[in-house]
């Protein structure tokens, strides 16, 4: 690992948590959206994380076989739609109501979204602290060399 390895790893986590916070904010903003371009109500989205460097190419397989200990950060494997069915609410005056007067709303729990957002915020802060600690270590090392 090089001198800036911690910063590289933490930077990947900062980027991933930022995307997670954006997706959570999008979920909260669209909690009452009944129309989308695809038709139907908005679908809750979730970010899927994976370890960086999980490719199964020859080079990574060879390095793993040779015992190379690579420590990687995190990357986003994808953003997936939640498969839950929409919540049907009786609202006959709504423009998107069906023939029986029910409207399909996204199955988004504000409490769950807030917990996800707080978790993303805490993880972001934790990785920012790791970057700050690495900066302090580098500064201390430079002071020793003076």
Descriptive notes:
- The protein is an alpha+beta fold.
- It has helices at 5-29, 58-65, 110-145; strands at 45-51, 74-81, 87-90, 102-105.
- The strands form two sheets. The chain has a two-stranded antiparallel ribbon with strand order 1-2. Strands 3-4 form a two-stranded antiparallel ribbon.
- The longest helix has 36 residues, at 110-145.
- It is elongated, with a radius of gyration of 22 Å.
- The chain starts with a helix and ends with a helix.
- The mean pLDDT is 90.
Please give the order of strands in the largest beta sheet: 1-2
Distance between the termini: 24 Å
Query: Judging from the principal axes of the Cα atoms, what is the shape?
Result: elongated
Mean pLDDT: 90
Order of helices and strands: HEHEEEH
The portion of residues forming beta strands comes to 15-25%
Counted beta strands: 4
Structural class: alpha+beta
| Cα-based radius of gyration, to the nearest Å | 22 Å
Major sheet summary line? 2 strands, antiparallel
Helix amount, in percent?
40-55%
Low-confidence stretches: none
Helix segment tally: 3
